[in-house]
Amino acid sequence: MGDLLKICGLDISFQYFVGKSPGFLKHQDSKYASVIDQETKCINHRSMSPWLWPDMLWKMSPTGIKEKISRMWLHNYVEKVVQDRIKELNAKLPEMVEDGLSKQGKFKLLDMLIVKQYLGDYTITDKYIRDELNGFIFAAHDTTASSLMFTLFLLAMYPEEQNKVIQEVDDVFGKDKDRCVTYQDLTNLKYLEFCLKESLRLYPPATVLSRKTENDFQLDKTGSRNCIGQNVALPMEKTIIA
């Protein structure tokens, strides 16, 4: 179930940010999905192995070498997606700028970045666009899958609440279970929303954030930081988890 939800999350994230359905869920043997899964496992392995936190040791380790190969493949894959979309939009960009800039909300992330680049924002390079897509898709699919997995787990633990969700879904969709979900449907699925939010409260998908210090700081005798209000989070290799 977990793997199925990850592929589903990839499908949703890719379509949301790129604007096209890649069909990962339909073709579950997708290399992109398998490489993303390998990348995730490598990153998790490093985060749980303090001896691999120094870059030098990580790059020499078997897992680090495997992660480098998978990351290069992902970069090349998304780079092709970006270049293909730029070619598709080349003839449409002037019209998009003239008619659509005031309605950028209807643009997908990829299209918005390409338009910004076309307008002369030289900070938005092809590499920048590729890295933004990689980051958003990678982070979104994993957190989405994790949240859904914990929600299903909790609903299985509490059958009475599960039955309430099923009844609500039946009331909203009736016998037509195959039609597309609309925004109006989402506003009517109140109890399902409560369950999702409670699951996020109990099992947040991102429980630890690693940041890098900009200034030196000291710990006082009680072990707490004596520089409240400053950006003093510890770097990854020295993170303190309370």
UniProtKB/TrEMBL annotation:
Protein localization: Endoplasmic reticulum membrane; Microsome membrane
UniProt similarity note: Belongs to the cytochrome P450 family.
Superkingdom of origin: Eukaryota
Molecular function GO labels: heme binding; iron ion binding; monooxygenase activity; oxidoreductase activity, acting on paired donors, with incorporation or reduction of molecular oxygen
Keywords: Endoplasmic reticulum, Heme, Iron, Membrane, Metal-binding, Microsome, Oxidoreductase
Main location: endoplasmic reticulum
Gene Ontology CC: endoplasmic reticulum membrane
Record bears the keyword Heme: yes
Names of the cofactor(s): heme
The species this protein was found in: Allacma fusca
Protein's recorded name: Cytochrome P450
